[in-house]
Write a structure and sequence with these properties.
heterodimer; A: mainly alpha; 11 helices; 2 strands; B: six-stranded mixed β-sheet
Chain lengths: 256, 238
């Protein structure tokens, strides 16, 4: 069955694609940090950061529609945690509403913070999309490993990415088999069937995990995770890293 | 008489839940032989294969290339016995074909240049050159099986143990896999109930039913003994 992989555009060839995953990881982290540390209301700095992102996306040859769609996926989650801020922040009142017997008021101050949170979240997610869409997932993990993220952790993520599709396939097959026998029934009945499916899926994954472990042991796995290192930093990585760092800092020191 | 590479005496195995897996198995394999282990589902074929490299261990006598299967020999034994699992999705757990085929050699601590050489060699054997950077999930079932075989060939094993190598394969992939296996100059133990495969590949057949060896002989003798096959669910009743 076909799935959309998060690195489906990683085969494109561009300057950004060719950068070492470690450079991209560090640079993305730095970008996120810079965005988060920018004081609220510095719209010009945000604009500069957005320009940097747009420029890099233009370089990367990723389809703009794909990037926009992916970047908006995160917005509902951000809204979920931040939507109440305008109601609770104190300050000058922008508007009051009566909902049944509650009197709710929104403050300018709260709206201001909400706008900042949304912009910051969006900028951060853009940088992560750039990172994950231009890097093969296996290289990304190799980069993490070489940046000394614990190997067990990296291995767990690698397993997750390898088997999530196997699992979705299994779930899909089960769902089809269920639907082809489904002749209606009450909600309770359907919920029960759904619960059973989740249970079976869990058991199957558990058994698969045991078989995978046996297959690993058969090839000499003894609990030690060993890998070949295949990454080499190039001069372009250094140039890019330095240039990017300057661009991050520059808007903060220019007297606007 | 050629030297024995596998010798098993009085092997019994019971699973932790009380299910009997194997009952007093005696059998040996000489170097260069191709032996089929046939039997109905649940006969204990896979259980037997798992004993060949010490994944499962009973209290009995299992000797591989003159080494007893026990803790201190496991590393060497696992290098000599390449076990290919039935479901390639179990065997191929890495994000790239290269990493999967390199997994064994890297675990054995070979230097980097040798690992790369071994991976290239193994992929060449199974006609999968050029797939190094692909993700196993993107491959067809036939390709996955080939890569799974390459992932143990990269350790240059003396014994290749395959669990249902042709399951889920269409006839074309199946016969090209058979041709591939035929060309590999190693001792082969093949657990299967695909009798076409047995005829094409093996000189000797061991019939396993309910955890015990019920027949052991040449392929011709066993596959022509219809009443024997019928008795163990390997041929139609009528």
């Amino acid at each position: 069955m076909e799935h959309s992989f998060i690195d489906q555009y990683s085969e494109l060839n561009s300057f950004i694609h060719r950068l070492d995953p470690r450079t991209k990881l560090v640079v993305s982290l730095a970008f996120i940090l810079a965005v988060l540390l920018t004081p609220p209301g510095e719209w010009r700095i945000f604009a500069v950061y957005l320009c940097i992102m747009v420029g890099l996306f233009a370089f990367s040859k990723l389809p703009p529609v794909y990037v926009l769609k992916r970047s908006f996926v995160i917005i509902p989650f951000v809204l979920l945690v931040s939507i109440f801020i305008p109601f609770f922040k104190e300050g000058e009142i922008a508007g009051s509403y009566n909902i049944w017997f509650w009197k709710v008021s929104i403050t300018y101050n709260g709206l201001f913070i909400l706008a900042n949170i949304l912009i910051k979240a969006w900028l951060c997610i853009l940088s992560l999309i750039l990172l994950s869409a231009t890097t093969k997932f296996s290289n990304l993990l190799e980069g993490l490993r070489q940046l000394h993220v614990p190997r067990t952790l990296v291995l767990i993520v690698s397993f997750m990415y390898r088997y999530i599709f196997v699992l979705t396939d299994e779930a899909l097959r089960m769902q089809r088999a269920y639907q082809s026998r489904n002749v209606g029934g009450s909600l309770l009945h359907r919920l029960k069937a759904f619960g059973n499916m989740i249970g079976v899926l869990f058991l199957r994954s558990y058994e698969r995990a045991e078989r995978i472990y046996m297959a690993m042991s058969s090839r000499g796995f003894d609990g030690q995770i060993r890998t070949l290192s295949k990454l080499t930093l190039q001069r372009a990585d250094v140039y890019f890293g330095v240039a990017f760092g300057i661009m991050l800092v520059l808007p903060h020191i220019i007297p606007w | 008489m050629r030297n024995k590479v596998i010798e098993i005496r009085d092997l019994s195995f019971t699973y932790p839940d009380g299910t009997v897996g194997l009952r007093k198995i005696n059998f040996s394999v000489c170097s260069g032989e191709s032996v089929a282990i046939v039997g109905p589902n649940g006969a204990g074929k896979s259980t037997l294969l798992l004993h060949l490299n010490g994944i499962l261990r009973g209290n009995s006598f299992v000797e591989i290339c003159g080494m007893r299967v026990k803790e201190e020999n496991l590393r060497e034994i696992r290098r000599k016995v390449g076990l290919v699992f039935q479901d390639p999705d179990d065997q191929l757990f890495s994000l790239t074909v290269f990493d999967d085929v390199a997994f064994g050699p890297v675990n054995m601590g070979y230097p980097e240049s040798e690992v790369i050489e071994r991976v290239a060699g193994a992929l060449e054997w199974v006609n999968m050159k050029g797939y190094e950077k692909r993700s196993p999930h993107h491959l067809s079932v036939g390709e996955k099986k080939r890569v799974a075989i390459a992932s143990v060939l990269s350790l240059t094993p003396e014994i290749l143990a395959l669990d249902e190598p042709t399951s889920n394969l269409d006839p074309r992939s199946k016969w090209s896999l058979v041709a591939l296996l035929k060309g590999l100059p190693v001792t082969k133990i093949i657990a299967t109930h695909d009798l076409d495969l047995v005829r094409a590949l093996c000189q000797r057949v061991v019939v396993l039913d309910n955890g015990a060896v019920v027949a052991d002989g040449t392929t011709d003798a066993i596959l022509n003994d219809i009443s024997l096959l019928r008795a163990h669910g390997l041929a139609p009743e009528i």
